[in-house]
Amino acid sequence: MKKLMIVGTGYGQLPLIDVCKRLGYYSIGIDFNKDSLGANLVDKFYHVDVKDTPSVLTIARSENIDGIVTMQSDLPVPTIGMVNQELGLIGVSYETAMICSNKDQTRVALAKHGVTQPEFFTVHNSKEAENAAENIGYPCIIKAPDSSGSRGVTKVNALSDVQTAYQEACKYSRSGKILVEQFIEGIEIGAQTFSQDGECLYCLIHNDTLCNNGFMVPNGHSYPFNQVSIDEKAVQDRIAQALKAVGLLNGPANIDLIVTVDGDVHIIEIGARVGATCLPELTSIYTGLSWEELVIENALANKHELRDIRGRACAAYVLEAPRDGVLDALVYNYEFNDYSAYNPIVEVTVQIGDKVSLLRKGTDRIGRVVTEAETVEEAEKIALEIKSKIEFVVSNNE
Questions:
Q1: N or C terminus of the chain: which is more exposed, having fewer CB within 10 Å?
Q2: pLDDT at 298 over 70
């Protein structure tokens, strides 16, 4: 029985654990949280920080693993890269893992290969941040380069906002470095890619939406891509250029892009892993392939043959609290049978009495709605309709 190490056993890794069991592989879980949702679901669990690369490498060697994977989180990616490098496993290299997990390094790698991206400065103190913002102009983006889940990302509209944004980014920067970037006006889109032996087999562009509460957090995605004003071939070409620039030759990637009104395609971020916010489920529905299975088999060096896309249109939106506070009540103002034709997945991940927050970062989401339909427009409409009929009653923290 082949052994697969799953780095992280929280909510986002549960699909990997399920598919690993279905395929008949032995699962070894690693997580700092011994009470994580998947800790008791894997065949063997180790209570270790996913960022503790030496310890994870020692365990990987002792267990003689055949592959190593994660989903939806950037934190374990450098650890996975090191294990792949030291044990000669298939997947992201350590060099590429470090480039993709540190947005300042991503920017440098893309610049070396002439990939279109925002103008940027890496700064080390608040004065440098002010100078960089003034140089770039407003609005601009200030972010922690080594964070994930949209933590520490702020859109800045004036010099007076720089200090607050800088301090917010510092809360989430492990390196102490901060990125100040040009804000690109345009349509934000995303892509899920899968590469094998240096060839990008799948480049799946999806529609993205951001929450409208002032924070730059994605709260929805859908397939197939339907932005007719955007040249898909130009987007795919830019993605291929970016993957080559960072060295992503095997496995999945999650890519954020912005396309301007003039059609210029800017790479915003590249993650060396599957995307979050329901993207694994949506990509599986849209392609007709299990994206988790694809990732697992790749890590175990099992070759994949390119297949036609034979899935359905689909959409997903995260559920979010209307404000900070405590969840007092949850009301479903619809009948499930009314929407059964759309195979809805409705999941709430909080309970009455839990503290909830406005959606400021990825981990603030409190559930999801996923639907499928004949067209992407219909899938989006139904998902939003269901979401609007789920009422979260939230009181103040006091």
A1: C
A2: yes
